[in-house]
């Protein structure tokens, strides 16, 4: 009986140990601790390499760019500066001119592709070789009169059909070499008379002829003769009571030439304009109007 009792006690002990093990909650295994991540130290910056010292007498100035030509702003004759006008001011404006003004027209054609209301309904009467002299010729196949509505005609007739009340004119480059300063002014005066006779309500805005690029000057057509022409043109506008628009006052260098950055053909005729110059021109027309 003792052995059985001892055996039973042994079995009961084993059973209690088993129950005790079943009631112990399971714990997750303890992992080895993960060491913290430490950013490595950046490599030390190398010492800067000192720039070589150049003696002052060996320092050379960079070659100046022709695009850096200084534009000299002269005191404008004629119309003084005013507050800029809006696009609607140009509703009844027509510009008469040669290939210089024709370039302005091409500039606007491009601008109108994305800004249709720019300068409103401004109109142009231009021809590549137009001058006040050949504007007096009879219309023919050989004449250089501008076309209007697809037809070549006299300026006085095309202005009448345009309905314009403000007539801006820039001519002279195709006149001075052929007729001289005095002859060009006489032709200009007659041209104005003809236009006025058929269009008594128009107001004339006489623009100064622009200078040439210095390398393109000719014996009979150069900046000296154009300056003399503009002097006479200003006197003519005063005598007639017309408005003088001195665009040249913002379009020349110290030596009286068309600035390189304003000239689209410096190696050619040296008289045609870049888009930059066209923007300057338009800005001047906006800010020099009759009160």
Which helices and strands appear, and what pairs or packs with what?
Elements: H1 2-22, E1 93-97, H2 99-111, E2 123-126, E3 147-148, E4 151-152, H3 155-162, E5 166-170, H4 176-198, E6 203-207, H5 223-240, E7 243-245, H6 275-286
Parallel strand pairs: 1-2, 1-5, 5-6, 6-7
Antiparallel strand pairs: 3-4
Helix pairs in contact: 3-4, 4-5
Structure in words:
With 291 residues, this protein is of the alpha/beta class. It has a domain at 85-286: SGNH hydrolase (Rossmann fold). The protein is built from six helices and seven strands. It has helices at 2-22, 99-111, 155-162, 176-198, 223-240, 275-286; strands spanning 93-97, 123-126, 147-148, 151-152, 166-170, 203-207, 243-245. Helix 3 (155-162) crosses helix 4 (176-198) and helix 4 (176-198) runs parallel beside helix 5 (223-240). The longest helix is centred in the middle third of the chain and has 23 residues, at 176-198. The protein is globular and about 75 Å long.
Compact summary:
With 291 residues, this protein is α/β, with parallel strands linked by helices. The chain contains six helices and seven strands.
By DSSP (H or I, 4+ residues per run), the number of helices equals 6
On the 0 to 100 scale, the average pLDDT is 86
By CATH, the topology of the domain at 85-286 is: Rossmann fold
Distance between the termini: 140 Å
CATH architecture tag of the domain at 85-286 = 3-Layer(aba) Sandwich
Number of strands: 7
Question: What structural class do the secondary elements suggest?
Answer: alpha/beta
Strand coverage percent: 5-15%
Shape: globular
CATH superfamily of the domain at 85-286: SGNH hydrolase
SSE ordering: HEHEEEHEHEHEH
Low-confidence stretches: 1-43
The largest sheet has its strands arranged as 2-1-5-6-7
**Helix content percent band:** 25-40%
CATH class of the domain at 85-286: Alpha Beta
